[in-house]
Amino acid sequence: MTSPSRFPALPDLPAVSEFAPGVVVNGWFAVASPTATPSGAVTRLNHEIAQYLNAPDIQQRLCSFGLAAEGAGTPVGIVARGCTTALICLNASQFRAPSFRYQLNTRDAPSLCTA
Asked: Residue 26 gets which letter from DSSP?
């Protein structure tokens, strides 16, 4: 469990951050659309995805796959980070930091991330 807290379906299993402080790696999925997509369409799609992800039966099904969804983020959340590429680079840096701290053998970050 590399999220900051324990996985709801396995509450007795400690999160990695409990014994390796600073190690937090969250997975995420994104839906992308062309730049010219009307904001109303993006807002509606985001709303529909959030409703779907928050449905109890979907939460339970995702949990059975080992996933815990906190709902849908917002298009503004991704834009605030610059773009999806910036979000990917942020995640890459989150992977690199613990690898240096714990002296793990790693490869260089993807070339799209100039950190």
From this structure: -
Query: What stretches of the chain show up as alpha helix (H) in DSSP?
Result: 39-54, 56-64, 75-80, 84-101
Report the alpha-carbon angle 72-73-79, nearest 5. 145
Q: Which residue has the tokens 């995805």?
A: 49
Q: What pLDDT digit, counting tens, does each position of 15-31 carry?
A: 888 887 777 777 777 78
DSSP code at position 68: -
In one-letter notation, the amino acid at residue 56 is P
57 pLDDT tier (thresholds 50, 70, 90): very high
Is pTM beyond 0.85? Reply is: no
